[in-house]
Amino acid sequence: MTTDAIIAALIIFLLRIVNNGIGTIRLIVMARQQRTITVILAFFEALTFAITIAAVATDLSNLLNLAAYCVGFAAGNWVGMALEARFIVSYVRINIFAKTHGKEIADELRKRGFGVTAALGTGHEGPTEMLHAIATRRDVPQIVEVVNDINPSAFTFVEEARAVNKGYIRRQQKIDSPQGYSS
Length: 183
Known about the structure:
This protein is about 55% helix and about 20% strand.
């Protein structure tokens, strides 16, 4: 195995990491309708993909390059998730349905700085308290822990909030400008 072969495999590995990192960020900004950034990222994602696939597909018997491509893809997924967790603020809507203790859950979440909207609803088994909160993805484990501590039988689900415009996010940080809207 020559030094040139190792360098080529290392370049393929690194380009796949970059490619996946770009792809992860592109998907996030695309979901937020940020078209210009999405198009620019798509260009660079396609460019890095074309370079790496060309280097691997021309000689599939080169196991070093093939391994660098596959391991780079896996590492790139990890890097993409780390980039999202570190640099991208993702908002989610937490929906909580509780037959009992809804007020206590809402009060505790508000005490911890979360904005909560409460309403009464009717479920399959009768009246239920519906709680809705917008929070960052990082705050979800804490919110779910509060819900489970107060009412382990409460039904909780989380969904992506494509855009956030006004309202309160943890610690009563007022949101005045649209988050997630762009042309």
